[in-house]
Amino acid sequence: MRNKNINEAYSADYREEYPKFTREMKETHTILIPNMLPTHFEFLTVVFGIFGYKNTVVLENESRSVIDEGLKHVHNDTCYPALCVIGQYIDALKSGKYDPDRTAVMITQSGGGCRASNYVPLIRKALKAEFPNVPVLSLNFSGFEKDSGVEVGPKMLLMLAYAIFYGDVLMSLYNSTKPYAVDGDLPDKIKEECVDLVKRALTEGGYKKYKSIVSDMIKRFLAIERRDERKVKVGIVGEIYVKYSPLGNSGLEKFLLSEGCEPVVPALMDFVMYCIVNNINDARLYGKNKKTALVYKLVYKILLRVSRGIIKLFKENGLTPPHDFEHLRKLADRVINQGVKMGEGWLIPAEMAALAEDGTENIVCAQPFGCLPNHIVGKGASRAVKQLYPEVNIVAIDYDPSATKVNQENRIKLMLAAAREKERAREKK
Amino acid sequence: MEKLLGIDVGSTTVKLTVVDPESSEVLYKSYERHLSFVRECTLKELYKIKEKFPDESFKASITGSAGLGLAEKCGISFVQEVQAAFIAIKKFYPDADVCVELGGEDAKIIFITGGTEQRMNGSCAGGTGSFIDQMATLLDISVDEMDELALGAKKVYPIASRCGVFAKSDIQPLINQGAEKADIADSIFHAVVEQTVAGLAQGRKIGGKVLFLGGPLHFLKSLRRAFVTTLGLDEEHAVFPENAPVFMSLGAALYSEEVKAEPLDSIIEKVEAATSHDSVIRTTPLFESTEEYRAFSERHSRTDLSKEDIKLYTGPAFLGIDSGSTTTKLILITPEGKILYSYYGVNNGQPLDTVVKVLTDIRAQAGDRVEIRSSAVTGYGEDMIKAALRVDFGIVETVAHFKAALHFNPNADFIIDIGGQDIKCFKVRAGAIDSIMLNEACSSGCGSFIQTFARAMNMDVEEFSKLGLFAKNPVELGSRCTVFMNSAVKQAQKEGAGIDDISAGLSSSIVKNAIYKVIRAKTPDELGENIVVQGGTFLNDAVLRSFELETGKNVIRPAIAGLMGAFGAALYAAENCHGMEKSSLLSLSELRDFKYTSRSANCGKCTSKCTINVLTFADGRKFISGNKCERGAGQHRVGKEFNLFDYKYKLLCSYAELGTSDENAVKNSTRGRVGLPLQLVMFEQMPLWSTFFRRLGFEVVPSERSSRDLYFKGQHTVASDTACYPAKLMHGHIESLLDAGVNFVFYPQESYNIDEHSSFNHYNCPVVAYYAELLKANNERLSDENLIMPYIDLNDEKTSVNALFKALAPYRVKKSEVKAALREGFKALSEYHAAVRARAAEIIEKARAEDKQIIVLAGRPYHADPEINHGIARLITSLGHAVVTEDAVFEDAPLVDVNVLNQWTYHSRLYRAAEYVSKNDDMNLVQLVSFGCGIDAITTDEMRLILEKNGKLYTQIKIDEINNLGVVKIRLRSMTAAIEEQRRRKNAE
Fold first, then answer.
1. ipTM score above 0.85
2. Chain B residues near residue A426 by CB distance under 8 angstroms
3. In terms of residue numbers, what domain contains B603?
4. What is the pTM of this model?
5. Which of A144, B119, B716, B912 could serve as B893's disulfide partner, Cβ 3.0–4.6 Å?
């Protein structure tokens, strides 16, 4: 992990031994995955299975002991997502369900300037005390952790991308149906059906026929009988983990649903494309890695095409479509420079603007307490977004192990109270 | 016709209002503290209403932070408190522009006109009613007394307003230095205002007709005054409604109009039935049975010192004084270590008076029979007590505690001391302190914390903690800072947890805080085998038991746990009295005549103008405190030539300010005036950019030098109050540049810093990299025209030149000019680095010649700003060491491979500096970390690893806007003591 210009002989080595993830372990080891997005990640495990990672498990443990283990094993000032993820691993390993000699854990690694790039070493450190034999498997596209990385070929990449697209479609359909369904349990049932449908497409082939798969899902959800009601729409943006993970954000989506709101959660694919575009921008702005940028451009093009296909299907069915990424970029330019690429960077203000444009005027910006990029792009950019869209109401919520749910929910309720007040005033007019 | 009823259940009080639906007239109102008996108190108040309106039906709603749970359980309508306020405001004050409401634990601002917006304090903000309560406890007066006192204040001290814990550490030294209580009281109220204006309004102006609501603002005249003067309001625009304390309940009552009416009895019935269900997390009891407790008490009573009667004893004795932050401890021992006299008491903010009183008593009882051969003092008040009473020795607390612990267990390998304000832990290796851990300013949930809670429950500490011993279901309260815990307690109370359960929960929180936050142990086994616990907080059996349960170990708690500092000082006095003719301690008659006066003044020795406190003793001697350097105390500065920090700062300033007083240079600057803020990425790159712009023919205007005032100047545009202090200071720098009338401010956005080829990548941290984006978005005075912030990677000349050329297009620069100027800038930057390195080499050589220890003070380049480091380098040189910095030495070390991803330019310097220090016997490293720096959460562990693997001490100092160096001094003195101990041992070998 160092610059290639450096002469090996001169360096002082403080690296400690850690267990590697060898190729054989694909067969022998159970691989634990944190539950950032339960549905998406379920699809991803199917893909991993196809590519030889025999047994991958998305963790579901969410009790207080998860947080306690995290607190014990992670530096006090490290971000909350690291604490949740590590706590979840250790709690799971302690549960006795997994044989520590035949278990590994997986994490993604972006290599950006945010400290999240350091999750792999942090997890190693945390595991060392009690589970010294559990290897950490890194999922990255930057060539890190050569001795313990997931080997991703083009085919797997494509399949992972489709899995994410389907996860996004399902998340959007479910959230926009659930609050209005006459039979409140039906959306959950339909969601299960769709999950099976996608899994089948992934394992049995035909997963690339996204048009028919997405149409099918849309049809199933549109068949659910809806009440004619106006609900307050609440967008969720923020740091990638606490934005999505129910463990990280104290079940934010569920809470919003229980408050009679419609949660609007931007797609995970937006984040993937954001990461890709950052590489393209680096070449444009600083002349960095121009050759690889060409590859990124190609990948971006493919993803954009599929996403636009999906958007079209949503529109044809009268549904609010996912964001067009080129449009997101344009919106970003109105608020912040696309050069802001650490953490979730310019994507957060772009999504805020896009939500506001679509009429989702209430936005929760979920961020881990003390998250560095969020100083700039969350709290820091809110004012700029508000100037463009005066009607928008943005509330930043900090998540950390000791912030109580009451406090978090109170702040959201405050926002909702204002939203309803506004709604009433509008009706009067 | 049925009446409207509003019930506001807050964090500390219950408010009820009955309103006539026709006239909106308030028929009845009440305001009661609920002492966490939420349901009971509400019921009591409802019965009172029943007496007044026996046959009435009501439409009722509940509001308030603690009301939600109650409302849900009893099925009464609930309205969000801000919404409730909104309804009432619209009814009674339709022309209000802004509403400020302070409650027990929350603070809110509602902007009504010009875009309705509501702000509520975040999870990290104090500055509320509870904060005021806590501060009153600290001053040992009631809130009302504090209010009265503040009216007679003459000056306002700067007190950190971010959260209670921070403010406390600003206030404590003021108390210890003998500042006037009235002034402190008023400063506290101003801190609350500061917090509201800075933390909540965040740039939006509080003006027009302002409505002030909530209990504290209604009852506290001084707080009102502070708000009105700070906001510059006149009587007409500052409205304090008569019904302010019950205002939310009034709103809730009005909200009830749409609710179905019911007889009061049915409402009472519902509330009565709303008993708690368990959703807070409960843990196991501290003791299962009284037998278990008895065995525990017996075990601990074994470690006791024997006593000797001071009235009968004849012979030599040694005195130890521990003047702590909230308590004062004295002990007199015989040469055999028997106790002749001991004292442990709260100093009520008057440490000197307390010591004089107790010492006079000791002298009187001792008569001529007992000769106090020698004396030593330790603790917060060390310097003052030493000077005032002519105590023979002053020693650092850590050394005192260590000495005392070894007396009880010579094999002790781990010592933990939890005092009123701080936690100290030492690991001991081979009879010497090996590493020291002190609590950071943000997690000092220590002894005084329990005290404050106990008082809030109307109990004394002992009574309160005894309750916890046999609690059946202790609650889990988390383990972060006081403010967080307040909320956790609030939630527990809401769920119906009893005081006993909360007491036990708090004890366990304190222990967990110590083990996992301060010590940062992963497993209890890391602590060691022979643990000695001490400090007043451990006299609390609930805390002691929690500690044993959490660690799974039986530990030693000396019966004099609270006196260990004083005892250690006495032992030190005894060890070091040889060769001393006579103790210089004041005699009985001198003590009886002892008098002093205290006044505060501003030191005029330099531009810092520190607020200092001068104690004048009856014999004409003076003691000065509050000064940041020796000059304030009337001494000469020592070690000036050994301070690379100061050198660096001056050098950078000279690049920035070069030619600003030279009229010719200004005249030649035809292209315009560019403002360069001397902060963050621009700090170290000042040589580059100032040269660049001068070369292009711009007049370079540097920002004002950092100061607390400068910070306040920009505070209203700070968007995120948990960002690091250097970032927050940036806002002031920008204001100063705009005030100077520059054409534009220049701050480049650099995702990548300059590649120094020692790491995998060379990023800046996100805050340093993109701060201009935040500035632009939050400062109305900035625009695309007057803030030029190109995105550049300085490692690539071509794109950098292009970007700069484009950015400066309005000033018609040529590409070739940009290129040449940039090259010249780089030259200046290398010259700067070379000069710093050369100076470091000189310092090192000179230090070696004089046999001084060399401290590598490692952090970020901008830590050299004296407003950011608060003079820490000077403190180190005053302890007799030389100071160099990481950027001056890292290149002399090989490249370092670490376990974490090494990808930030400034941070990778740290690893190499640590490696460099490790290979030099006469060097040690102190790492400066800005509070809130997320990246240093990663680097600090690696730094510790590198240093400890090489047998070096690791010392970390966290810094932020607080300029109280008390804790820092303890740490550095302890480090010095440990270094000396190491040296001694090495020489002995």
1. yes
2. none
3. 596-623
4. 0.82
5. B912
